[in-house]
Amino acid sequence: MSNEERSLNFIELIIEEDLKKGLQQDELRFRFPPEPNGYLHVGHASSICLNFGLGLKYNAPVNLRFDDTNPAKEEQEYVDAIKRDIEWLGYEWAEERYASDYFQQLYDWAVNFIQRGLAYIDSQSSEDMAKQKGTPTQPGTNSPYRNRSVEENLELFEKMKNGEFPEGSHVLRAKIDMASSNMLMRDPIMYRILNKHHHRTGDSWHIYPMYDWAHGESDYIESVSHSFCTLEFSMHRELYDWFLDQVYDDNQTRPKQREFARRNLSHTVVSKRKLLQLVQEGHVTGWDDPRMSTISGLRRRGYTPMSIRNFADTIGIAKRTNLVDVSLLEFCVREDLNKTAPRVMAVLDPVKLVIDNYPEGEEEWLDAENSPEDESAGSRKVPFSKELYIEREDFMEEASRKYFRLTLGKEVRLKNAYIIKGESVVKDSEGNITEIHCTYDADSRSGSGSEASMRKVKGTLHWVSIQHAIPAEIRIYDRLFTNENPDGDKEVDFKSYINPNSLEVITGYLEPSLKDVKDGEQFQFQRLGYFCVDRDTTPEKIVFNKTVGLRDTWTKVESK
């Protein structure tokens, strides 16, 4: 095996083998086929990156096809959200298609199946059909309606289409093999009656194709060469191929279904049904709640398209389902934002710092670099004055020699400013520190070039000037679930693992350069983490979401 072949994943190897066997490069076509019954989540991101990534690698078109065959659960809102997410991730689809575009062709093929004795109308109840289907170790039994005449089947199917029957009264089943070892081949349902309004076709149809019938035939209609889906569809492959066998024309590309493993993310769920539960029951504020595993939730929290694409590339494509630690996703966004996010100062748990020997009423504007990772990002001015806020945890009245932040009698540097020394504290009646008093070395200003400015001290603190500080609502997010695999035990309701402390809302204080921030802008609050401006921000009130800390502190907490 060559070095190039070793670097290919198993799906790319399948494609390469097909090209060697005679499939032409210009016959390659892929698709991403979401059902518009919910918002896309991080699991879908892997599939998006796989299919569109293959399109880029092989210079092949990739269709976005909505498998909209269940009007009871599908909405235009979901269609719009899915398109928005894919575009945000940076991908372009060749054609926008819908399974509903093919309803007439699928119906015509179904009529042909009936005419050829390959399908029949079953009028049993769903309970009776389930009983006669057998078990994995026992063959099924034929439906009493299996040998209906072609004429009767055609008449009933026409009436089903016209809305002359109530839901549940009839279905169209393929006539395959009730003794098959694959239970999906035991006369699967092709159509059911649904007297529901469809978001695209309106009330034109009263019957809707089942996913297994519509999916493969839609691939065929679109000349998709490779249809990739997750492992739970591996048993469906035989049915996928059987349906294709009945309509396949040698002059057209025949799709090939192949399966890859689903990637689950720790401390969350990636089932659209369960995500919908969280929304409907009010455990989160919506599909784009920053605690959700949805792409829109990750975007609102401050994740970047590149971080999600890098995450998908890092976990890769495999044949075995596994649980990916959310820390890896956090690492990817941390790595990306480190290169792009401007540095600013904010204090989230403030305590007042008074510089006793700083001139009363004076202020100065100091230079602060916007990003050490990007010289072209330039610098900004930050105001300095006698009274500042620093983080409460950055001061300790009595500290060991290993404590390198502010304490009495020791020096630290204020970022971009001066060296200070702790002198005394003021406490309230309960013994809580309300003020820290210090002195500063007036010759030690950062960047001044003076001898004092070169003096080395072990600690550097961020700060904001109290008189210039802008208050802001800061939303601190934690894991939505306390259990790393909340969906792992089917005997336990996954919602019992919801973390009651997954959101903390506090007031923080920002440097004044942030007074005109816009929705979606991202910053590193120095020494605190990466934060994103939330869409709830107004001219009167700034709201920030914490995207991720500067380090993975969760691992330390778990290890304890």
UniProtKB/TrEMBL annotation:
A single GO BP: glutamyl-tRNA aminoacylation
Keywords: Aminoacyl-tRNA synthetase, ATP-binding, Cytoplasm, Ligase, Nucleotide-binding, Protein biosynthesis
Subcellular location: Cytoplasm
Catalysis: reaction(s): tRNA(Gln) + L-glutamine + ATP = L-glutaminyl-tRNA(Gln) + AMP + diphosphate
GO cellular component: cytosol
Location (main, coarse): cytoplasm
Positions of the UniProt region annotated as Disordered: 127-147
GO molecular function per UniProt: ATP binding; glutamine-tRNA ligase activity
PROSITE patterns: AA_TRNA_LIGASE_I
EC number: 6.1.1.18
Main EC class the enzyme belongs to: ligase
SUPFAM superfamilies: Nucleotidylyl transferase (SSF52374), Ribosomal protein L25-like (SSF50715)
Residues in tRNA synthetases class I (E and Q) anti-codon binding domain copies: 460-534
Positions contributing to L-glutamine binding: D67, Y211
Domain Glutamyl/glutaminyl-tRNA synthetase class Ib catalytic: 28-338
Biased composition (Polar residues): 134-146
Positions of the Glutamyl/glutaminyl-tRNA synthetase class Ib anti-codon binding domain: 341-441
NCBIfam families listed in its UniProt record: glnS, PRK14703.1
Protein family: Belongs to the class-I aminoacyl-tRNA synthetase family.
Record text on subunit structure and interactions: Monomer.
Name of the protein in its database record: Glutamine--tRNA ligase
Species this chain originates from: Flavobacterium arcticum
